[in-house]
Amino acid sequence: MNDSQLSAVSSCVSASQCAHENQIRLIWGPPGTGKTNTIAFLLRALQKMKCKTLTCAPTNVAVLQVASRFLRLVAGDPSQKGGRAFRLGDVALFGNRDRMEIVDVEIAQHVFLENCAKKLSHCFSPEKGWRHHIACMTDLLEDGVSQYTEKNNEYPTFKSFVKGRFKVVSESLIECLETLWTHLPSSSISETDFENIATACDLLRYLDQWLHKTKFSKTKLERLFTFSAEGGERPKLESDVALKITECLSILEGLLDTLELPKSSNEPFIVNYCLERATLIFCTVCCSAKLHRFAMEEPPEILVIDEAAQLKECEAFIPLQIPGIRHAILIGDECQLPAMVHSKVTKHEFD
């Protein structure tokens, strides 16, 4: 960014910290001067400060452009450390899927609220959700021999049973855990649990690879998969694997105790759950009317409106009247298209 853009971001960030009065900031710049890029850096700064922010624009295309620019900025941030410093669940993009043409912008699909709710609904399911998958894995690791005895007609050997069963269960569990890691807002899970989820996925992949590449005897394998946390020892020859199995069990059982997540797979409920906990919310000015229905414990405090010159005055009041909004940042210039009236009836009345 140049000095002018940095100054604009700094001024807006300072205004967002003002607690004794409401603030309004205007960012002006002719076409092609980097206003959208400036918004992306501003939102990144506000997100790092955990300032709950609502970003609006007159059109779906404009909203999608701002959201995409922000996500690309985050993706290219070297401080991401492999993508673990930022949660996509902290961003909520909602609106009309068809008008927004979300299918044409892959990076934005990851934060589109309906997509996230659909993925999370499978994880929150009481019958087949994350708790079910963890229970299946812990049962296999702690007492795989008993499970094989019950299903020995389906598998010729204990080795084939462990390989096949572990692969099926681990793939389902990893998919579920990674969905939680990716799409849950950071405020819904502690940082320790986020790290444990990532570690558990790494351990499960390691164990699956070990099972398919290592030669071992039936006795050794049976001893590994009959370990009890209350007593028993892993074979000394497989101490590294034994430690990883023990660590994996400990993490998975810990997640069962510490994760407090919804037990409903109802998608509208999950949409509300994520929307209330997101740090950055993107939508059109008109769609922001939906936020008036939510009694958020922590409503957005900052409103950012891109292409503000295209708005009719009455439209601007929709997000400005959302309870909790304290500061507004308007971006645009007089060269932008003015507000347009598409209704033939309304246009006839004014003509």
Automatic annotation (TrEMBL):
<protein>
    <recommendedName>
        <fullName>DNA2/NAM7 helicase helicase domain-containing protein</fullName>
    </recommendedName>
</protein>
<feature type="domain" description="DNA2/NAM7 helicase helicase">
    <location>
        <begin position="1"/>
        <end position="344"/>
    </location>
</feature>
<dbReference type="Pfam" id="PF13086">
    <property type="entry name" value="AAA_11"/>
</dbReference>
<dbReference type="InterPro" id="IPR027417">
    <property type="entry name" value="P-loop_NTPase"/>
</dbReference>
<dbReference type="GO" id="GO:0004386">
    <property type="term" value="F:helicase activity"/>
</dbReference>
<dbReference type="InterPro" id="IPR045055">
    <property type="entry name" value="DNA2/NAM7-like"/>
</dbReference>
<dbReference type="InterPro" id="IPR041677">
    <property type="entry name" value="DNA2/NAM7_AAA_11"/>
</dbReference>
